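User: Show me sequence and structure for the first protein, then do the same for the second.

Assistant: Starting with the first protein.
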Amino acid sequence: MIKQELIGILEGLEGDSFIEKYNEGYDQAVRDCLIAVKQLDEPKKTVLPKKADDFIKEGEGIGSDKVDIIDSAISFARAMPNDEFSLWFKSNRDLFVDAVSNGYKVKKEQLYKVVIDHKYLVQLFSGRTDARLVEYEELTNWHDSAYKLTESVIKSIDERYWPFAVKVEEA
């Protein structure tokens, strides 16, 4: 139950006794509880890297429940010990279980633009290493995700581009 649900339940309660003093006391107790609940802090959601979010989403996509996703993560880490997710999972099991159980946010990866001689590197297709340099004026033809790239994407295209990467400031 989240805080808003509890507030809704408390606001819907009312004393239904024939004794007026009882109802007044009951209503006062409910008001006091409401004041206390409204002062509670919302629990902070666990922050997971994109690779963990991808693993969870893949499990949800095939209809797995939370327990199955956690079991799959354990099995996957044993079967593929050198995979990027497995390496992260081995040292973050409790964090992963908490995130799957109670919700999470995805850590935003730093984005970069690669600028060489006033031209911008554009990834032609997401998930592939096809890329080319385009003039600034051409950028309007491309979605942000085509030229605002993560470090790993830039290096997968060609590591020689990395020295030309410039951080993209968040809006």
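Switching to the second protein now.
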Amino acid sequence: MEPAEKAKNIVLLIGDGVGIGQITSALYNRDRMLQVEYFPFVGFQKPFSANNLITDSAASATAMACGAKTRNNIVGMDADGKALPSILEIAEKKGLSTGLVTTSSIVHATPAAFIAHQKSRQLYEHIAADFLKTDIDLFIGGGKKYFDHRKTDDRDLIRELEKKNYLIFDYFNHNLQQIKPNPRKNFAWFTAYDQPLPASQGRDYLPAAADMALRYLDERSDVGFFIMIEAAQTDWACHANQGGSLLAEMDDFDKTIKKVLNFARHDGQTLVIVTSDHETGGLAVNPGSKRRNIKMAFTTNGHTGTMVPVFAYGPAASLFEGIYDNTRIFEKMTEAFGW
């Protein structure tokens, strides 16, 4: 069925490791609605990889970014090692402005799948170098050391980015309130030398960074924009089976979704998609739970194979109803853009 409208902009929000259990826990841990409850269209995606029923973030993010199944550990390539164009790279070639924002290192598996092409997600310095092969307008995340304190070569990628018209900020010299992007320049903000702090230890930049990124990308191109925004450390909290940390990360993610929804409501041309790459921890809300006092139980410290939800708001949002493979996220986004 053809959507009634095409989207000028797409914001893809990924809550890493977030399944129904994580969403339910966050919902019952508060006295108000979660932002995803305002989304009119809901679907489910199947996240298995090409070689494993239990995917990792590299394979699942590649499926969403590039529209093809691949093996665990691979980013931006198919199962045979062939590089695949991502929706971010396609958008860039079509004149849209593009961005990546994450609470992990910017070269971590999920953001990497949208901009890099490597046979191993652990090749962080190679992934960092792949950023120089694009003209991505904006990226925000940790991992500065992979750009300027490299072990595999003597390149200074920070200097190379500056030569490519990037205005660069970092955690050491700037906080978000001090940063004023110049729409005539590309923008990068390194939020940590390696990995950013968890939300439970004071990290709070994601909502404000998302808000700033949307306004910046909107000003950068009259054609439209694509951005992927990741709440990465929801996954880490679930790997550690730490319910309190998870709830802090989910609250941060919810605030970010609110910023994006506010932009989309005002703009009227922006499709917002909230989903996950996989579920982590096998989380359940157990008997004895009460509102704001959730008894959470994890069944594993790894990923699970359960389907994960997809929430959609805005032009062409009806495309995201139903149950489908995670590769269809890419296909539905390109259809929403009218490509």
